[in-house]
Amino acid sequence: QAWIGGIRAGSVASCGNHVKASSRWIAFNAEAAGVLGIVPLEGEDEGKRTVSQLCCHSDVVTDFDFSPFDQLLLATGSADETVKVWRLPESGQDIPSSAGLTLGPGGAPLDVLQFHPTADGVLASGAGKRVTIWDLEQQQPLTALDSHGDQLQSLAWKRDGRLVGTSCKDKKLRIFDPRASPAASQSVPGHENNKDSRLLWVGSSDCLISVGFSQMREREVKLWDTRQFNKAMLTMALDTSPG
């Protein structure tokens, strides 16, 4: 275990991740818009690490994710409406100045993205009210899921890759089977407040955890079972939001 200090990270207001790591690199939002900080996971002499900059977009980087199949492959999404895929170098080599692949612009700022956990080269991206599943090799969408009622706030693949769950500003949680239909197979009211929400699968199980806010601005966590998706199995209040 070790600390990595002296890093000046940015405070980007977005629904996506602000830091992600592969087995080779750590990526995080930098202070400048459109720039990610890139740090090698393994230190050099005496554990020292050099922070590099990846100038990847013309606007704020809203989300990014490393491929589970290639620890050097990084996908980034931005308010400039594009998704870009970058091949980071081995440690000690120069950071790339151009993306290997650009998708878009797509007509709306990119909010969230995530690589498919079991299919190499498949990526889900969410922009505005729409989720698109991409085939990166063909640079074409495999499918576009039905439009949500409001801005998408999070998406998450189930670990086996069969289902994708989303949370939305319309206060609903949805489950999709993209191979079967673009329509949601299940949906349920999630949290009463439309402030930021997040949805995550619990390991390989059929359960989900959502984080959001109640009508009284209490931050809360809910546990859901997709086999009985009409109501939460458990609700736990954490604290109260001042905003």
CATH topology (fold) name of the largest domain: Methylamine Dehydrogenase, Chain H
**pLDDT averaged residue by residue:** 91
Give the biggest beta sheet: 4 strands, antiparallel
What is the number of beta strands? 20
Terminal CA distance: 36 Å
Portion in strands: over 45%
- Sketch the topology as an H/E string, one letter per element: EEEEEEEEEEEEEEEEEEEE
Low-confidence spans: none
**What portion of residues is helical?**
under 10%
| Gyration radius from CA atoms, angstroms | 18 Å
Kindly give the count of domains. Answer: 2
Spatial strand order of the main sheet: 1-2-3-4
Based on the structure given, which CATH architecture of the largest domain is correct? 7 Propeller
- CATH first level of the largest domain: Mainly Beta
Q: Give the number of helices.
A: 0
CATH superfamily annotation of the largest domain? YVTN repeat-like/Quinoprotein amine dehydrogenase
Shape: globular
